Amino acid sequence: MRESLPSHYIGLDIGTSMIRCVIGMVDAHDAGHVSVIGHGQASNMGMRKGVVVHIEDVVESVVRAITEAERLSGIQVQNATVNVNGSHVSGMNSKGVIAISSANREITPEDRLRVEEAATIVQLPPNREIIQVFAKNYRLDGQDNIKDPVGMNGVRLEVDTHIVTAATPNLRSLDMVLEKAHVQANHHTVASLAAAEAVLNRQQKESGTLLLDIGAGTTNLVVIEDGEVQHVAVLPLGGTNITNDLAIGLKTDLDIAETVKVQHASLEGKGERGSVSVTHEDQVLTFFKEDIRMIVEARVEEIMEYVDKELKKIHRSRKLPGGVVIVGGTANLPGIAEFTRDKLQLAARTGQLQPLSGLVDTVQDPAFSTAVGLM
Predict the structure, then answer these.
(1) Helices H, strands E: what count in the chain?
(2) Do the strands 357-358 and 228-235 form a parallel or antiparallel pair, or are they unpaired?
(3) Could you give the CA distance from residue 79 to residue 139 in angstroms, rounded to a whole number?
(4) Against a cut of 0.90, is the pTM above it?
């Protein structure tokens, strides 16, 4: 097998309904930019709400998505940055404190690592583990809001962190999937953080922005303010719930409900009369537009209520200058930005990727934001 060079970056987004792989390399003409050289996707039947429930099915889908990306790029995938999903993922705040013992009292990168490690010494249940630690700000001898203490002088260094933890059994299942698919995980992260890397600019990260990644089985959210992660949460609701609601409300099969959702669901046109037709196995089925809109709206409203609850936990409800950026497959729902703006009382828009070159036509879709961010 050829060695995959470090100049290639691979993101593997293992989602509830789809697995997406994106391969990029540093642009030869512009070192600061990444060029997409391969992408692949495959539908996934082995997960429920972001958690692996059938290992073999997920392995098969991972292999299909990676093979497609390999074929396009001509590169063999051996390792990738992988997301961790599911409502078992949660964030908590923690503080770390250390004394600076060096003779000149100057803070070194080792001290910074030490204080962050001190913050991770928290009481966790035996079935949970830490996947990421984010330093929000440092304090040095009582001086607050320091972004990077290295090079400063002091005696007592403190840090406020946000720690993201996940359930160990679910992480082990994910590792098992990767092992069987012959892919090594360089790094685990949460879907919303990866998507934030792909779609938020520096100004949005500084001013305070909520990134909402509405997938099939889960809704991932992250609040980034002052350039740091303030809150991470995963809600067990997503696009699949909308499909299920349509199947019940329209009294029709799931695959017809999915077609209706993809082709005709919308949060626009309130009170609009008229109907839409869907052809399925030589049958033409007709549904009223207003029925579809009401069913979709009820579920999206519920998702937004849960999102607002999370914002209230950190006292940021209606208080984010950067507004809301929506990504994920459900971001393609017409009118979702306006609906979110009304419900959360914040500016809202669907996410656009930061400038990329290469094969960008497919990956411009908001559903690919997480995979691109992982890359």
Answers:
(1) 11, 19
(2) unpaired
(3) 37
(4) yes
